[in-house]
């Protein structure tokens, strides 16, 4: 078969263009660091890279969520720490007010400081994070959750816990609501409260009581009533919620009164007709507890009788029990915050490990092997030079050269 000059020209040109195209592609691979420049280079590999990039983006979003969660939890931890400090200060002031050397004027000074601390608590409860969201408002993050109204502190937030997606199948809570932190605190010792009847005429003071046996059902409220017998002996009875007699014994000053697995101690001197109540513990807000304490301190008169003092001591003992419950509540929440921060760290480590694996898989598919690419570049350059030289030689051929 005869091969025309035009065919030689076309074949040589195509060879040069092909070598140039391959050389340019190799140069682009080296410049970008990627061996897949277009999906057509490796359709299956390109599709896999897209899937991996989507997975990487998702894990990176999880990490951004964790960053926000960590910031929110650390902000809450700081507020809780300061709240605990305020409760501890109020407790110190309460103990100070119970000292026998304190009179009504001094207690009013203590009450004024407690009112100031209460205002500080409201400000802490209304803390905002760096984005302006109220951290204790539940899901109503743009609404101030605590406000003074009619002398009380009202909660306007909700009880929704905010969650962030920390991993493919893991969500983490980033807040505690103001309701559980400040508004719902057990009173007394957590199971029951003790209180003196308002009309008591003696100087008896009841403590917060203790639980001796939880297996015995608590059938309160119980009433402890004192009666002076005809012979002058003082006795007491303990009656349960149904009015049934649980205990009936002579009163020996300093002895504990034990009933249904519970124990209380009454000091001082009760008189005939005095009574005390041991009731199931209810709930109160931290603000309400401080308000009740301040009111009791403010009610102290300048000419205080021994009976007046006993009434304040009973109120002060109740306040101490309430403050201990409030402090325990804050400590429990701080413990939960610490556990959540640990969970954030654990999830972040897991996500970083996933990112490492995903990026390595993506790199194996699309990243260029520089040693191989450089070798191929040299090969392409040699191929192009050879094609160009062949073309020049073919161009120079003529029958006249052989005459």
TrEMBL record:
Subcellular location: Bacterial flagellum; Secreted
Cross-referenced InterPro entries: Flagell_FlgL, Flagellin, Flagellin_C, Flagellin_N
Cellular component per GO, a single term: bacterial-type flagellum hook
Pfam family for this entry, one: Flagellin_C
A GO term, aspect molecular function: structural molecule activity
NCBIfam families on file: flagell_flgL
Protein name (Swiss-Prot/TrEMBL): Flagellar hook-associated protein 3 FlgL
Organism whose genome encodes this protein: Natronocella acetinitrilica
């Amino acid at each position: 078969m005869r091969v025309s000059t035009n065919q030689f020209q076309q074949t040589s040109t195509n060879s040069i263009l092909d070598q140039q195209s391959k050389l340019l592609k190799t140069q682009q691979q080296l410049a970008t660091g990627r061996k897949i420049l277009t999906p057509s280079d490796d359709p299956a590999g390109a599709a896999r890279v897209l899937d991996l990039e989507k997975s990487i983006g998702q894990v990176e979003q999880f990490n951004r969520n964790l960053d926000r969660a960590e910031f929110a939890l650390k902000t809450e931890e700081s507020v809780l720490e300061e709240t605990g400090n305020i409760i501890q200060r109020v407790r110190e002031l309460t103990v100070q007010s119970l000292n026998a050397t304190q009179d009504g004027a001094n207690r009013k000074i203590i009450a004024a400081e407690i009112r100031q601390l209460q205002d500080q608590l409201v400000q802490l409860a209304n803390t905002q994070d760096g984005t302006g969201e109220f951290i204790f408002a539940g899901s109503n993050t743009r609404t101030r959750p605590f406000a003074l109204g009619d002398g009380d502190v009202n909660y306007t937030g909700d009880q929704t816990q905010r969650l962030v997606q920390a991993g493919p199948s893991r969500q983490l809570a980033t807040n505690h609501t103001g309701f559980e932190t400040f508004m719902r605190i057990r009173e007394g010792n957590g199971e029951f409260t003790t209180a003196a009847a308002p009309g008591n005429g003696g100087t008896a003071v009841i403590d917060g009581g203790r639980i001796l046996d939880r297996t015995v059902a608590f059938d309160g409220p119980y009433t402890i009533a004192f009666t002076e017998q005809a012979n002058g002996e003082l006795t007491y009875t303990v009656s349960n919620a149904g009015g049934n007699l649980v205990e009936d014994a002579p009163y020996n000053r300093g002895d504990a009164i034990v009933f249904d697995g519970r124990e209380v101690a009454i000091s001082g001197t009760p008189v005939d007709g005095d009574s005390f109540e041991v009731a199931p513990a209810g709930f109160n807000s931290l603000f309400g507890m401080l308000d009740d304490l301040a009111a009791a301190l403010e009610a102290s008169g300048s000419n205080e009788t021994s009976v007046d003092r006993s009434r304040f001591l009973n109120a002060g003992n109740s306040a101490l029990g309430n403050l201990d419950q409030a402090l325990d509540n804050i400590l429990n929440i701080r413990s939960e915050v610490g556990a959540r921060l640990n969970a954030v760290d654990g999830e972040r480590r897991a996500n970083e490990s996933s990112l490492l694996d995903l990026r390595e898989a993506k790199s194996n598919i699309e990243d260029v092997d520089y040693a191989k690419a450089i070798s191929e570049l040299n090969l392409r350059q040699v191929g192009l030079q050879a094609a160009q030289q062949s073309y020049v030689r073919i161009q120079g051929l003529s029958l006249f050269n052989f005459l």
